[in-house]
Amino acid sequence: MIEALKSEEIVNKVGGKFKLTALIQRRLVELLQGTRPLVERKRGMTDMEVVIQEILEEKIGIDYEKSDVSTPKQALQ
C-alpha cells in the first residue's frame, strides 16, 4: 500500500476521501492515455504512485472555481 494514503494529509489537501478518489481516477486515466507525469518518475514507480506524488507536491488538484464541487472550507460550513 502507498504510505501517503494512510495519512489524512492527502485527504485534507483535496477536501475529502471521495474528492481524492475522483481526482486520482481522473489523473490515472490521463496518464494511461499518454499524458506526461508532472513529477519525476523514479525507477519502478507505478502510475498510482506518480499521481499521489503529484497531489502531495500540489502539481494537480481540483479546480473548484471551474467545477460545481464545493471547496473544502465550504463543505465544513
Question: How would you describe the overall organization of this protein?
Answer:
By secondary structure, this protein is mainly alpha-helical. The chain has one domain. 49% of the residues lie in helices and 0% in strands. The termini are far apart. The mean pLDDT is 87.
Radius of gyration: 13 Å
Which quaternary structure do these chains form?
A: single chain
Low-confidence stretches: none
Percent of residues in beta strands: under 5%
What is the straight-line distance between the termini? Answer: 33 Å
Number of structurally distinct domains = 1
Overall pLDDT? 87
Q: Could you tell me the number of beta strands?
A: 0
Globular, elongated, flat, extended or rod-shaped: what is the shape? globular
Structural features:
globular, single chain, mainly alpha, 77 residues
Question: How do the helices and strands line up, and which of them pair or pack?
Answer:
Layout: H1 8-14, H2 17-32, H3 47-56, H4 72-76
Give a nutshell description of this structure.
With 77 residues, the protein is mostly helical. The chain has helices spanning 8-14, 17-32, 47-56, 72-76.
